[in-house]
Amino acid sequence: MNAPLPRETAIGGQRPLTVLVAAPRGFCAGVDRAIEIVERALERFGPPVYVRHEIVHNRFVVDGLKAKGAVFVEELDMVPDGVPVVFSAHGVPKSVPAAAEERGLSYLDATCPLVSKVHRQAERQVQAGRHIVFIGHRGHPEVIGTFGQVPDGAMTLVERLEDVATLEFADNTPLAFLTQTTLSVDDTAAIVAALKQRFPDIVGPKAEDICYATSNRQAAVKAIAPDCDLVLVIGAPNSSNSVRLVEVAERSGTPAQLIGRASDIAPEWLEDVDTVGVTAGASAPETLVREVVERLASWRQVEEHTHVAAEERMIFKLPRQLAE
Ligand code: 0CJ
Ligand code: F3S
Question: What's the pTM value of the predicted model, to 2 decimals?
Fold first, then answer.
């Protein structure tokens, strides 16, 4: 970690710096639950507890759990026999729990309940005879997990608005759309509108499946970005919801940087900056937010304000095996 510059030598060091902290930010109910599942599994079964994929897309969370005895692997066949395994918050294809059962592995499913809800909708639409247009990012584990709820060929991926014009289905194919939970609210609304225009009979959820936490974090960035010269988003490059926050700030006309932690901030970014916004993706711990504000305060005289765009009170129950 780079040592903070002394305040008098830091760029813009003589000027005060207003820090606008967005709220809501950071951990959502699904992330709280997923981390607690791994922690409780470690307490109950003792280490090692295996976790398939990063439990959430954050290195600090993963490293913290590794230190307590969790072992992270990408595929189930890397889990030794007789050891408990947790599935990540992003969800898994049906083939994964099926393979665990076949091997007699005990598993805990940390899939966010809001992702599981999309899984059930996908199954229901296919049972109702509809082909699904799924809006999401290719290769993301949530997309792989949701595709894995239905037979091959039952779902078509749409990533961008331009893709809608290229969709080809046999005449009178009944259609439904579903979405990944961590998408851009604005981009998705445009894609859904284009789908409805091209396929007027397409059915879908009342609101798209973007989760409350993703929507609220984007709304909070929209609220602060116009007053900021720079927005810092704490999150990982493979964290879909975090990357969307950078886009939201940039589309408001404010430059933004995705950072893993405070030491990633280049002091020259603060040149000509009087107000900096700070937020964190749903998988980024609050300690990293405090670390960022403290680093800024080591360079400049900081005045910190929190802007609350929405209140969140969501809590998800633990799986039955761990509830008591
Ligand atoms: O997919 C989810 C259920 C969100 C989990 C929390 O965020 P993160 O960063 O692990 O995952 P995304 O890449 O999906 O945002
Ligand atoms: Fe779930 Fe949304 Fe968080 S889908 S894990 S509540 S980002």
Answer: 0.95
